[in-house]
Fold this protein.
Amino acid sequence: MVRAAVLPAVGSPLEITEIDLPEPGPGQVRIKLAAAGVCHSDLSLTNGTMRVPVPAVLGHEGAGTVVSVGEGVTHVSPGDGVVLNWAPACGKCHACSLGEVWLCADALTGAGSVYARRSDDGSDLHPGLNVAAFAEETVVAANCVLRAPEGVPLTDAALLGCAVLTGYGAVHHSARVREGETVAVFGVGGVGLATLQAARIAGASKIIAVDVSPEKEELARKAGATDYVVASETTAREIRGLTGKQGVDVAVECVGRAVTIRTAWESTRRGGRTTVVGIGGKDQQVTFNALELFHFGRTLSGCVYGNSDPAKDLPVLAEHIRAGRLDLSALVTEHIALDGIPAAFDNMVAGKGGRALVVF
């Protein structure tokens, strides 16, 4: 038996309870978690913004050590440090054939399976977003496991599984920020902090962080922000004022709200680029008129998992970490136990802090 955070139903509070994990079958790996990040996507699963089968063990950003492997697994062995990949590409669908593995049609197929059972009543449990990282141990498909980069502590490496791949990819793959360009990042949570660091690595000349909380300015500047704007009705005007009345070359929205997406778009110069990373609900409607779309010539694009290929991007990120360009500890504002996850959700709703990290 292992302890885990179970979502019994959408809209219900998490329950910290014991679960029974089977031994890994063919093509599976059992992992002892070292750490798991508490991501806004996990919160979106609890309130129904994103949907997965329930009851489920949530958590999708994690790293740990291989305990055992099933038949046919050869790329990792017991004792190996690994990073969990919650969206493994099938390599066969249309998106994968185009090289767009982040859009794989079958990436979340595993979330519908039964992977464990509650110890108290024997009820079936699904692995939230494939990997069920909010548990002391988990069993996942082999393609959800990547070797952890050498020289990176596993507690830090957990952040590579979502926040860092997403933030880095938003800058380098989606927006394709070039040296000397100006960037605005909306939302200074875990992903936003990773995005700020990625913009600095890309050589952005001015990096403007935007958040509703004045208390996050120090966090943002530590991550690479050169300027800080407290979100208000005049945010777009303030950003234009900081950029010679032109607007930024690139805006990255990490919140997922209609008003923030619209403001990010308005904050870019004519011909600028806005990348939307935040996951919003269906009720968040963004509107534009045809004339402004023509006049401003701006680009608005969605960004899934940073448009990243984890197998290719992890070694790149590892090199940035070892060279001191990427500081994973700067993303984390709180280390918690499993029973601290509900409070971490409350902090996210209140707009407090960066990434909370569950340490086992």
